[in-house]
Amino acid sequence: MMHAKITASAAGSVRIGDLTVHRMGFGAMRICGQGVWGPPKDRPNALAVLERALELDVDFIDTADSYGPNVSEELIAQALYPYPKQLVIATKGGMTRSGPGEWGRDCRPERLRACLEASLKRLRLDRIDVYQLHTVDPKVPWSNQVGVLADMQREGKIRHVGLCNVDLEHLEQARAVVDIVCVQNRYNINDRQSEPVLEYCEHHRLAFIPWFPLNAGDIERIGAQAALAWLLQRSPIMLPIPGTQSLRHLEENVAAAALRLSAQEYAALDNLAGGGKPA
Q1: Which member of 67, 131, 187, 200 is catalytic?
Q2: pTM of the predicted structure, to 2 decimals
Q3: Which one of 80, 185, 204, 225 has the lowest number of neighbouring Cβ atoms within 10 Å?
């Protein structure tokens, strides 16, 4: 379903700390090469996708130093700098890369600090609006991983701190060390293991950023727009960040911001994976 005027603002807004963004963002992982490795085959197209996202009123772009690695951040800066005042760029640190489709973790404080400094340079920023810990490193004390983010926030290099891929225990422990404004966990119609974290975020008014939002089982039958509309109606704190290298898919995804499911449509989708909390 397409709409006469495509705009991310149709999804409404959500607060991330003292920032307000539209609830339809853009995930910049897929603008890299295959396996999230290296540059895209068509660099001008990747830049055009980023530029078009802003034309569609997307004002929240999520990236990470590990996308490429480094490539996604570099493309964002090339396409969009100097940034519009309303644009919020969220990036992440803590993952390592050794090849296409290969992911590791290293969240030692000294490495996280180096990751942040490098992201600041690539994005041409003095401060990251939202800096997210990309993963939990079991080899490093959790308090040390979160503590260095608190240190860098006090130094003025991070405006707001977010977490990724955490359970309730890690989230609660982190909030005792530093103010957390958002959580990015895997969540979609077909995978709701993070339901307890989502409900915690709802209670404490933290933004919830579902990654892999379109892993909806038979997505061809369900439709990407319906899967995104379901997420938006699932919770007022939901901030989907579908990513793509296609201008057409970008417009289709953003158009889902204006799609409203009927109670029957919502229930039918909700029951696909055993049901969830009604909107």
Answers
A1: 67
A2: 0.94
A3: 204
